[in-house]
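Figure 3 (text version): structure tokens given as input.
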């Protein structure tokens, strides 16, 4: 499945794309701010099967006008939920966005969704939990320590998990000091809300399959009309055979 992650700049599109790749094994990449798709690691010339559209704190006019032009199934996400207050605030933002868009919206905390806790990160988290280190209200000040090695370790953990993700991981390490890196990754994904996207993405499968079939038939029709092979050649010698094959494909 090819997913284009859309939304206005800064909503967390690259992070959501990374989370979709890591959690669901799909090809997901951010749609370029202008022009064609790019910005992802899974480069492909194929058109996307599905758009995952990332909203900011609220639906904007540019979201509405963009989504009106999208001709593939859409799954809408409210991004950066870890920065939007507590569970109650997030629920109300998600409900308002769903009302404004007229479709379901799923809240996601990107860095926690995309997290892949390594053994080094797990060990650092366990050290901090044992030492009673917590993430301050101003999460950035977690890295305010003199030792440059420790500062680098903290900066990297904060960048990887985000402030709330880091706090969630630390809480889990404090409650269960022997927790594994894999279990911490699962725990963060559970917190992130990304799992709720599985059902709506799966529900798009029949539409996606029908659209792929339509594209395939259209491509074969064009090939057959040109009388050429898959390379578009159409050389006199092989033309009839290629055309026969295309037409046979079409009526299969
Ligand atoms: N706390 C938090 N930070 C996030 C979240 N999603 C993304 N970020 C951070 O926001 C910054 C931009 O994230 P991207 O995923 O690159 O967002 P984008 O929409 O591609 O934005 P641009 O690349 O700036 O156009 C990065 O520093 C991310 O780590 C989130 O859900 N929570
Ligand atoms: Mg980005």
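Below: residues designed for each position.
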């Amino acid at each position: 499945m090819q997913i284009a992650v859309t939304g206005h700049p800064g909503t967390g599109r690259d992070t959501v794309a990374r989370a979709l790749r890591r959690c669901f094994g799909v090809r997901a990449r951010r749609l370029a701010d202008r022009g064609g798709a790019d910005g992802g690691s899974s480069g492909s010339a194929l058109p996307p099967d599905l758009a995952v559209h990332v909203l900011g704190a609220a639906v904007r006019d540019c979201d509405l006008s963009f989504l009106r032009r999208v001709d593939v199934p859409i799954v809408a996400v409210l991004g950066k939920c870890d920065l939007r207050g507590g569970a109650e605030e997030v629920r109300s933002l998600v409900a308002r966005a769903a009302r404004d868009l007229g479709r379901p919206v799923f809240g996601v905390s990107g860095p926690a969704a995309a997290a892949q806790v390594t053994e080094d990160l797990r060990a650092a988290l366990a050290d901090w939990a044992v030492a009673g280190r917590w993430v301050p209200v101003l999460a950035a000040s977690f890295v305010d320590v003199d030792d440059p090695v420790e500062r680098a370790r903290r900066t990297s953990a904060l960048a990887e998990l985000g402030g709330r993700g880091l706090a969630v991981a630390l809480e889990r390490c404090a409650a269960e000091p022997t927790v594994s890196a894999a279990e911490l990754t699962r725990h963060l994904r559970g917190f992130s809300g990304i799992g709720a996207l599985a059902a709506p993405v799966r529900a798009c499968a029949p539409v996606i399959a029908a659209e792929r079939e339509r594209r395939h038939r259209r491509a074969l029709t064009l090939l057959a009309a040109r009388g050429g092979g898959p390379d578009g050649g159409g050389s006199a010698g092989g033309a009839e055979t290629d055309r026969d094959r295309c037409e046979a494909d079409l009526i299969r």
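The two ends are 24 Å apart (CA to CA).
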